[in-house]
Amino acid sequence: MPVTIALANQKGGVGKTTTAVNLAANLAALGKRVLLVDFDPQANASAGLGVKLNENDHHVYHALIEPKRTVDLLKRSTLEKLWLLPAQSDLAGAAVELVNAEEREYRLKKALEYLRSDFDFIIIDCPPSLGILTINALVAADRVLIPLQAEYYSLEGLSQLINTISLVQQGLNPDLQVLGAFVTMYDGRNRLSGAVVEELKNHFPGKLFATMIPRNVRLAEAPSFGQPIMIYDPKSRGAEAYKALANEFLSLFESIL
């Protein structure tokens, strides 16, 4: 059964897009059919897979306007089983245009219904906000995965995110569930990182992933070359961490589905 995952956190700089790209790439390498949906007007997930659109190219924005065209908007990645629904900066205009649109919260869900059966996993990279685009992603998703930086600032706004997810569950998508949270930019030499992890265990009892993504220069470099870390530097600490996260992710689904 295909599963749609929204990677969400309204706080920027927590490794959300890095995770979306690298989790998707590792799942594809493990033989899963994966679609990565770039739903952030910054289009960093698209760039992270080496996809650069021309000004007049159509992308995920056009899927919201004409859902039946969604399958024609997909782009191949360098990995055989990984596809991308790309974005461009004018996706930001959708937040304005959808305000008065009919069934505005369901536009992405309708678009993905046209290709959902073609994939094992659909991963949505949400923008760093809790606006209409993120609401669309949460309505379209079966599960939410929350990246959290190993700093106390990561706890700020967490209640707002959880509240938004709760509101979506109550009114728009009652089947939505929080899959879990995971720690990014972890530094085991730093006592603060360890203290934050313990605090997060209290916030997400039984739902904090064991795999923690370390601070890693090679992870930061890979997007500028348009490559997932598993291709850019497969022996780096970052590559090993995302490989472990993908395996833990699959193990979790084997236990709950």
Task: Itemize the secondary structure elements and their pairings.
Blueprint (H helix, E strand, L loop, with lengths): L2 E5 L8 H14 L4 E5 L5 H5 L11 H6 L9 E2 L5 E4 L6 H6 L9 H7 L7 E5 L6 H9 L2 E7 L8 H14 L5 E10 L4 H13 L4 E7 L2 H5 L7 H4 L4 H20 L1
CATH level-1 class: Alpha Beta
Characterize the overall form: globular
Oligomer: single chain
Biggest beta-sheet profile:
8 strands, mixed
Number of discrete domains: 1
Low-confidence stretches: none
Second CATH tier, the architecture:
3-Layer(aba) Sandwich
The share of residues in extended strands comes to: 15-25%
What structural keywords apply?
single chain, 257 residues, alpha/beta, Rossmann fold, 11 helices, 8 strands, 40% helix
Structural account:
The chain is of the alpha/beta class and 257 residues long. The protein has one domain (3-252): 3-Layer(aba) Sandwich (Rossmann fold), CATH 3.40.50.300. Helices cover 40% and strands 18% of the residues. The protein is built from eleven helices and eight strands. It has helices spanning 16-29, 44-48, 60-65, 92-97, 107-113, 132-140, 158-171, 191-203, 217-221, 229-232, 237-256, and strands at 3-7, 34-38, 75-76, 82-85, 121-125, 143-149, 177-186, 208-214. An eight-stranded mixed beta sheet has the order 3-4-2-5-1-6-7-8, with helices on both faces. Helix 5 (107-113) packs parallel to helix 6 (132-140). 44% of the residues are buried.
